[in-house]
Amino acid sequence: MRTFSQDFQTELYNLMKWRRDVRHFKPDPVDPELLRKCLDAFQMAPSVGLSEPWRIVTVNSPLARQKSLDNFKAANADALASYEGKRATTYAALKLSGMSDAPVQLAVFCAEDTAKGRGIGVQTMPEMRRYSVVSAIMSFWLAARAHGLGLGWVSIIDPVQLRTDLDLPDNWSLVAYLCIGWPKEETETPELETVGWEMRNAQLTTLIER
Amino acid sequence: MRTFSQDFQTELYNLMKWRRDVRHFKPDPVDPELLRKCLDAFQMAPSVGLSEPWRIVTVNSPLARQKSLDNFKAANADALASYEGKRATTYAALKLSGMSDAPVQLAVFCAEDTAKGRGIGVQTMPEMRRYSVVSAIMSFWLAARAHGLGLGWVSIIDPVQLRTDLDLPDNWSLVAYLCIGWPKEETETPELETVGWEMRNAQLTTLIER
CA 20 to 30 Å from B137, out of A85, A114, A137, B111? Predict the structure, then answer.
C-alpha cells in the first residue's frame, strides 16, 4: 500500500488553508510550461465514467478579454443594485475579480452530452458531469497553489452570454471563469472576512446523523 | 511568501494519481478521530461568499443504510436496462458502489437557500453553491487518501428519493453519496479501464484558444 508521510499530510493541510481565492495579481507573466504542468492536474481528477467532460478555453485575445470583462461588469452592476445601505457600500468596494490584471484567464466548460463514459453514472444525476469538472478545477487550483501561483474563481458572469461571446457549442455549460497569475500579497484570511462581509465557521457545524 | 518544496509538489501529484474511486473495502472500522480530521478539509475548501453550504449526513442506522442501498439497487437496475449486448454484460459485472461494505457512509447535500454569504456570487450562477460543496468533497477526498482511507462517490441514486428517505429539508440537494473505509486493494488504474468500459485520455486534449 502507498503511504504518505506525516510531514506531507501536514503540508497538504497547510496548502488547503493557504489556498485562498486570489484577485490581486502582479503583471509578471506565467511560464507556459508551468501552466501546462498545473493543467496536468485536470487529467488526474476523478470524472464520472471517465467521461473527462472538461473543456478549457484560454481567453487570450483582446476582444475575448474585453467581452468577458464587460460581461462581469454588467453582472456585477446588477448584483450591486440588489444590495442596500452599508451592505451596498461594502459590496461596491470589494474587488471580486482579477480580470483586469490576471495574465492567464481560462473559461472552463462542461460538455454536457459527451459520449465518453457511455452514460454511466449520469442517468439519475446528469449534474455529475459538471461536478467532475469542478473536481478537476479544485485539483488544478491546489496544484497551481503548490507552485506558488494564485487563482481566483469568478462566478459573477452571465454564463450563456459568455458561451455566445466566445463562440462555443450550445451544449457546453460554463463552470468557472478562472484568473491566474502571481499573487500580489499572501494571506490566510479571505478578503470577505477582512472587510466584514461574511465569516467562516470555526469548525464543521453541519454533521447530522441518520 | 509561503513556498512548497519540490518533494511536496511531486508527492501531491502522486496523491492525485493514486486517489482513485474506491469501491472495495475491508470490514475494519474507521477511527472516528481520523474521520473527523479528514472532515476538517471541508472547512478549508473554497465556498462562494463563504456560504459554506455543505450539509453532511452520516448514514449509520440499519434503516437509513437499507433505504439508501435499495435506492442504489433500483437506479442501477434501471441503468443496466438501458444497455444492450456485451455492454450490458460488462455493466452488470461492474461493482459500482461500496454501499454493502463501506464502514462509513456520508450523504453530502447543498443547502440551496442558505443566507450565509448574503447572496454574493450566486446571482447569475446559483449552481456555485453546489460547486462549493463539490470543491469541499474533493478536498476531503484528497485528505482521506493522504491518510490511506479509500473513498467512492456513488451517483447512481435517485437524489430526491434519498432526501425524502433520510427526512431532510426540501431545499437541500444531494451532491454525493460517499462510501469510506480501508481499501481492499490499491491500484492506479481505474476499474472502468481494467474491464474495458472507458479509457482516460493520455493528456489534456481539450485546450481551445479564443
Answer: A114
